[in-house]
Amino acid sequence: xxxxxxxxxxxxxxxxxxxxxxxxxxxxxxxxxxxxxxxxxxxxxxxxxxxxxxxxxxxxxxxxxxxxxxxxxxxxxxxxxxxxxxxxxxxxxxxxxxxxx
Length: 101
Hints:
The radius of gyration is 17 Å and the shape is flat. The chain is built from three helices and no strands. The longest helix is centred in the middle third of the chain and has 28 residues, at 50-77. It is mainly α. The chain has helices at 19-45, 50-77, 79-100.
């Protein structure tokens, strides 16, 4: 059973979310996707049942796609955050490129 994080947006709210609330809700959705990926992958690693491995791996990979979709939406809604993500990606590229030389 997946943990349910404290999320004020899981129930109907009597108003529309502000942009800031939406960004925070999407961040929480990303955490949920990470939890789901971890759970499904743990199940895959814990069994030798080929049918289960096939289905659970497919679901896990769909969750990875969802995470990518949510990250793209987050970066569009919060351009400053995208800049930080891009900076982190560039740092990793530089680190790994130096290692290859």
